[in-house]
Amino acid sequence: MELTVYLAGEIHSDWREQLKSKAAESGLPLTFVGPQENHDLSDAIGEKIIGSQPNNVTRDDAASGINNLRTQVLMQKADLVIALFGEKYKQWNTAMDASMALTLNKPLILIRPESLVHPLKELSNRANVTVETVDQALDVLHYIYQ
Amino acid sequence: MELTVYLAGEIHSDWREQLKSKAAESGLPLTFVGPQENHDLSDAIGEKIIGSQPNNVTRDDAASGINNLRTQVLMQKADLVIALFGEKYKQWNTAMDASMALTLNKPLILIRPESLVHPLKELSNRANVTVETVDQALDVLHYIYQ
Amino acid sequence: MELTVYLAGEIHSDWREQLKSKAAESGLPLTFVGPQENHDLSDAIGEKIIGSQPNNVTRDDAASGINNLRTQVLMQKADLVIALFGEKYKQWNTAMDASMALTLNKPLILIRPESLVHPLKELSNRANVTVETVDQALDVLHYIYQ
Amino acid sequence: MELTVYLAGEIHSDWREQLKSKAAESGLPLTFVGPQENHDLSDAIGEKIIGSQPNNVTRDDAASGINNLRTQVLMQKADLVIALFGEKYKQWNTAMDASMALTLNKPLILIRPESLVHPLKELSNRANVTVETVDQALDVLHYIYQ
Amino acid sequence: MELTVYLAGEIHSDWREQLKSKAAESGLPLTFVGPQENHDLSDAIGEKIIGSQPNNVTRDDAASGINNLRTQVLMQKADLVIALFGEKYKQWNTAMDASMALTLNKPLILIRPESLVHPLKELSNRANVTVETVDQALDVLHYIYQ
Amino acid sequence: MELTVYLAGEIHSDWREQLKSKAAESGLPLTFVGPQENHDLSDAIGEKIIGSQPNNVTRDDAASGINNLRTQVLMQKADLVIALFGEKYKQWNTAMDASMALTLNKPLILIRPESLVHPLKELSNRANVTVETVDQALDVLHYIYQ
Amino acid sequence: MELTVYLAGEIHSDWREQLKSKAAESGLPLTFVGPQENHDLSDAIGEKIIGSQPNNVTRDDAASGINNLRTQVLMQKADLVIALFGEKYKQWNTAMDASMALTLNKPLILIRPESLVHPLKELSNRANVTVETVDQALDVLHYIYQ
Amino acid sequence: MELTVYLAGEIHSDWREQLKSKAAESGLPLTFVGPQENHDLSDAIGEKIIGSQPNNVTRDDAASGINNLRTQVLMQKADLVIALFGEKYKQWNTAMDASMALTLNKPLILIRPESLVHPLKELSNRANVTVETVDQALDVLHYIYQ
């Protein structure tokens, strides 16, 4: 039973690498997909492909269209979604991706630190499972195969 | 042609009252629904109905289940959704509600200040229309009836 | 904002009458629907309409087809569902109706006594809200209108 | 034509092993999935992954979120579902899973002893096929390939 | 609780009038819709609106497009469907409409004489309820309101 | 049986007024909705609401977001769609709206002159009914009520 | 691009074998599925698996539940459906399967003799393509790969 | 992560060959599908398979049914869609296919020359990404794998 997991959430830390390398050790047949992790590329991709834009609003819109296409293609391939919130940043894309997953009936594991319990309470309540660490999310993936 | 509009977003300012009162002046057949605007009640509703909870996590979870039920009932009645982001607060519920609306194929008008152009660029790209003020959102509603 | 509420669950007590009469006092624009509450009629309706059946299996099947048609028609009209489990009876129809509601994306309020916490834990986890009394379920309905 | 079959139902007997071993003998390209069959692990998985909980309600809720995620992932992979009811236990999860399958348009084979004809009559009427033994369910699987 | 009922089936007898007049006597809030009952008009409607056609195949295709549009509009309005098969005629439209209803998750009452038990066995098995007379179908409608 | 009809197609002639006035004479309970018919307003609405844009591409994008929101809101209310193609103009919005209607399972009447038979053959084949005049489309609406 | 094709229609002639053997010669990556072609087995399968039934109605119902499960499993795997009507038999299962396919958005090729043009006109109008011979249906399959 | 891409748009230039050959050089696991590119065959396929037709309207309808079946089968297999508009031709099939893709929730890349900005503004606004060249579309495909 191969499963594809979309990893939504912050792209400023190496949590995806940690999770992928531990999953690889376990030998489970998991494929991981997710957003563009090169932050500069993610912001610049619109102008890089389409050409220079007249202002910041249109520059951002050009990039986000391509990022959204990527997310839509990959999330539709996913069997479940893990969304990680850190303590910094606004992370509205993480909330947007998590809610898209839930509304598409894709199971969701939410990872968030204890400090974010209150502001994430409604999203946590909709998630299937809420944990605090990447290792706990990996434990949930393992449990599917036990 | 009566339309029901769900007003997602911050509950710390009176933007909903402004929008509703201006809409009422225009005489358009609009019904507005939205989240619980009494912040204290919204946080306390779990314990108020279900009884005291063992800790903050479960207190928050009890409240959020009831808030989520409310949102789900009312958003399913809505023909379109307006989501407002302000400059303060994490506002992950606003992002969650906006994404749910889009995924359910409900048209979305996003209201956000210029300062939030960059962090909201992917959500803005998915929205049908992005504006900066409540009056502009109201102009879009008027345009449907012109 | 009129709402239709399907009341799933045991038909051996008068909990629906309690809930309806308290809701009527509150003046909220709620319409309640639910299964056939006349237990004998519910069991006999197949033979009553279609004629006598060769054995108990076919007698039960004849009745259940008509009961299921009724549930399907009325639940499709419902905006949300309340499901009550009591301490007696197998109540598999209640579980079936509650799960149908959740899978159809209809919000669910689960009412169950403390003694059933463990056997109903997975259903409770999928429900939007779990309470122990009819009055608490009514409080949740009130909260939608506050 | 490979098919994946979700085996819902009681985890206190070895019916899944019987069914799987007989299916293996037949050489049909069937993959079987199902709930966690280690009952203690199933009840403890919440605290095992997330940590100790303040009381039984939250302990059960923590476990059930993870069990529900597992069910949702695996059932979405399934082409059809077999649900077995035995004479003991409340088995509300079995009823919940069977109804989820039917509502998701997954074909359902119901296995139940004659003694449960009456209380399961509505679920049996919605099922595609109702049988009394594991061997009969296996016969239905064989028939798909004949 | 107003319900709309689509009456599929033969247009050569007056069964719809019988059913409607008995339903009217009962005072139930039922609205009935259905196919064009004027057989000649139904066959001629293509040429009548679009103009003369080069041969019988295209004449029939022109009529059937308009008949199918009518069915699609009205069946999408229906809460449930009653399909009647008589002993004469091929009645493939009745089978087509009944199957469309079931696939759209509209509850179906099938009316067929005892002589058609065998050739209609698969459709009868998918229907919610199978009866032999118009009065029995009306009894099922009454039961929804009891 | 009230029906709402979305009128897609060119906004440079008065075909909608003709159709609406003839429908009004017939007394049928039809409500007509459609795109913004004031062409200048339709092109300018983006800058009018959101403010001046840096170039023609962004000016057009600002207007089209608002026009698309309008179409989405109104088409979701529609029971069927009429799409008219004339001999001039590219009319890609008409093709887009007609295809959206068909994909959403909304019945479609296509009106096109004989000169466009060949380039519209695939759309015509998907439409429920293809006619050449507004009067013929109105005849199809009448037929639903006969 | 592998495709799975469900072959609905009469089981009294060898049209499926003809079609499969010609398709095999062409080397196209097609997999064919369909109903049980052993007529006696198809009628007897209920009693064969579940045991003897009290009368013909229940015997037929037992068989049809198993046949319907088979159809549902296999049609959900299919990318397109071919339905053949011959000049004999009532063939309501063929009409039922064809309509299920269309309503599930599965493309349909209808094969019917010229003598059935009139009674099948509405189904033919809904089908993507209508032909008169098995070879023509095969030509359509070939065209997908050209 | 293998992806299937449907290439909608004009069949009078070799843009598909350019795109496929460049994609092949990159080694990405992409499969391309699309409409019949032999224009004469596309127009003649109806008469070629079904036989000579009485006039041009029916000749075109016969061909388009087969072309639409092909598009429906292949687009349902696609993970995303690229639609190219050139400066000539009416290209209503391109608009129809692009809108079908968007309504089916398939991500869309629109390729159009600057001269078509205005007439395609609504479709461009609904598309995920709009570019002007085949190479830019290929860049977007590459970005999914970065």
Automatic annotation (TrEMBL), chains A, B, C, D, E, F, G, H:
A Pfam family that the UniProt record links to this protein: Nuc_deoxyri_tr3
Recorded superkingdom: Bacteria
Protein name: YtoQ family protein
Organism per entry: Salinibacillus aidingensis
